[in-house]
Amino acid sequence: VTAFYPELGYYYYFYNYGYLNIQNSSVSRAYSINFYDSSNDSSKINGSRMSNNANHAVYTERASPNITNNIIQNTGDVGIYLNQYSSPNITGNVFTGIGSHAIYAYYYSSPNIENNIIRDNKNGQWVLRVYDRSSPRIVNNTIIGNARGLLVQYYASPLIENNTIDKNGDYGIYSSSNYNSPIIRNNIISNHTNMGIHFPSWESYPQIVGNTIENNGNYGIYLSQTSATIENNIIRNHHSGIRTDYWGITVSNSSINNTVYDFRTYQGGSITSTNTTFGKSKVLFEGTGGILNVY
Fold first, then answer.
1. Which residue, 93, 127, 189, 271, shows the most beta carbons closer than 10 Å to its own?
2. Please, which residues have CB within 8 angstroms of residue 219's CB and are 6 or more apart in sequence?
3. Residue 7, SS3?
4. 47: buried, middle or exposed (CB in 10 Å: 19+, 13-18, 0-12)?
5. Max CA pair span of the chain
6. Confidence (pLDDT) at 201
7. Helix (H) or strand (E) run with residue 97 in it
8. Burial of 156 per CB tally in 10 Å (0-12, 13-18, 19+)
């Protein structure tokens, strides 16, 4: 399915208000494939190619179709845009050449994002964006070689588990806009130019468990006004392993081995370290009131 006279820049509208089943097909030069509240949630797009759409490959609003085993490429904007209470199954897809975010989950959306390959999207945008009380399940994906990694914002609580997050520009996972509580578990987060995980937001409460975080430039984990549980991680080969500003964090059962500092605190930040290996000479307290408790 495509537009007539694509050489003239034409696109077409593709709206679905009922049941839609696209199998082993090609859709190109639509504005987007749109699903709405009246769409049947058993709708499917499977084994197909969606390319060169003006806006998004798929747009959902209060709709939850199954989007599986597709190639999604060269969109003008977001690959899959999930708007308001959308919880589709997004599995086994390949995303390349996306104009903005590969997947954007907005306003109470809770999709299952699993076993996708998201790579080589060099548009300057965060490749996955989770925003405004959304809680997606992001599991077993390969997220490699994109402009930027995952962005978690504003009361978001995603599960980020068993992913390979590698070489995505400056950050692997970045949280802003406050009040976020992701579970970041059993991932490989590596080879970003600045930080593996960064929470410059405040009043966030991540659980960072069982990850290998390595070779991420300046910091493995940098938290500011964030209370984190950091457990069973390997954090190595950064300038600094873990830094906390202002608030306290707990680190347990982890291995921390970095080039200059393993622990850093700033302006009253505190670390409680339990059963964790780190260099006792690789600790830096900046500002006033920093505390390191070791058990």
1. 189
2. 194, 195, 196, 198, 238, 239, 240, 241, 242, 243
3. helix
4. middle
5. 70
6. 76
7. none
8. buried
Express the helix, strand and coil content of the chain in percent, nearest 5 each: 0, 50, 50
* Residue 12 backbone phi and psi in degrees, to 5: -135, 160
Distance, CA of 264 to CA of 290 (rounded, Å)? 9
DSSP state of 204: B
pTM: 0.96
pLDDT of residue 5: 46
Residues of the chain with pLDDT under 70: 1-9
pLDDT in tens, 239-261: 999 999 999 999 999 999 999 99
Edge-to-edge strand order for the sheet containing 94-96? 26-28, 49-51, 71-73, 94-96, 117-119, 142-144, 164-166, 188-190, 212-214, 234-236, 255-257
Amino acid found at 86: S
Classify the C-alpha dihedral 197-98-139-83 as positive or negative. positive
